[in-house]
Design brief:
Layout: E1 9-12, H1 18-29, E2 33-38, H2 41-54, E3 58-62, H3 68-82, E4 87-90, H4 105-133, E5 136-141, H5 154-173, E6 179-186, H6 192-201, H7 205-210, H8 214-230, H9 235-247, E7 254-257, H10 259-270, H11 273-284
Parallel strand pairs: 1-2, 1-4, 2-3, 4-5, 5-6, 6-7
Helix pairs in contact: 1-9, 3-4, 4-5
Length: 290
């Protein structure tokens, strides 16, 4: 087993599926002591069993990022078992893929409670000790949707734009304390987030299939599915980018993952808003009139 991590302690939220699970396994395999958190006891049991099977320094931790007391207990449990937290990876999140008009206020609250307030809750629980110790890495799992917004992504993209803004502020505020804030910006990668989005859309299926945005839903989902099918990037590839960012002596502010993330980054820099809008509408097959 490699020992790059030298026993450094990592707290990783949303570790039971997809990108989080891949990162937890990779980092543990490189010598980090990883505490992978989640809400599902069944999935946490599976993560723990996998860790034992592979003899990895990976412990499953029950923690709900949407609950103050749960986060407090989780962070205290990590410190009691392993000491100070060296790396925090804010990965927990999900996505609504629904039209702005058809999202309820409760949907918006749920989206932001996990993707934004959950990140704030965990970071504020961990950050003071990092600042006092003058060391630490905070990794924020953003998205290409934090750079550009496509149709049916208003809530999810808004939450990731918020994460980008928070991370930019933290990067400046924590610079004097040697605590580095790093954004990871994946494009479309197959993970559990797609199935969750479909499950969340189920109550709206009549509107999705027959409502005023039905054709836009079909175009947007067809494009997303085609993009995912073409992408050769895996969750393990994303995990390797996270490892690179953690290991870098002078990490970059943000790391894109997938070709789409690179295109989006340069498109934001080089295209006017009108040009970018036309490109997005063409890619998603959005007509001028319905």
């Amino acid at each position: 087993m490699a020992t790059l991590g030298s026993g450094k302690v990592v707290l990783l939220t949303g570790a039971t599926d997809g990108l989080g699970k891949a990162a937890a396994i990779l980092l543990a395999g490189h010598g980090y002591r990883v505490f992978g958190s989640g809400r599902s006891r069944e999935k946490l049991a599976g993560l723990g069993a996998l860790a034992r099977e592979k003899s990895l320094p990976l412990e499953a931790l029950e923690m709900d990022v949407c609950d103050d007391a749960s986060v407090r207990r989780g962070v205290e449990a990590v410190r009691a078992r392993a000491g100070e937290i060296d790396v925090l990876i804010n990965n927990a999140g999900f996505a609504f893929y629904l039209a702005f008009e058809e999202l309820s206020l409760d949907d918006w609250r749920k989206q932001f409670e996990t993707n934004v307030f959950g990140v704030i809750r965990v970071t504020q629980a961990v950050l003071p000790r990092m600042r006092e110790r003058r060391q630490g890495r905070i990794v924020m799992m953003s998205s290409v949707s934090g750079l550009v917004t496509g149709p049916m992504q208003s809530a999810y993209s808004a939450s990731k734009h918020a994460l980008e803004a928070m991370s930019n502020a933290l990067r400046h505020e924590l610079h004097p304390f040697n605590v580095r804030t790093i954004l990871i910006e994946p494009g479309y990668i197959m993970s559990g987030i797609q199935q969750v989005a479909l499950d969340l859309a189920e109550p709206y299926m009549e509107k999705v299939q027959q409502g005023p945005y039905a054709k836009l839903y079909a175009s947007a989902w067809n494009w997303a599915n085609a993009t995912r099918a073409k992408s050769k990037t895996t969750a393990e590839d994303c995990a390797r980018v996270i490892l690179k960012a953690i290991e870098a002596p002078h990490p970059k502010p943000r790391y894109g993952v997938t070709e789409l993330a690179t295109i989006a980054k340069w498109g934001k820099r080089l295209l006017t808003d009108s040009m970018g809008d036309r490109l997005i509408r063409r890619r998603y097959g959005i007509p001028d009139r319905l």
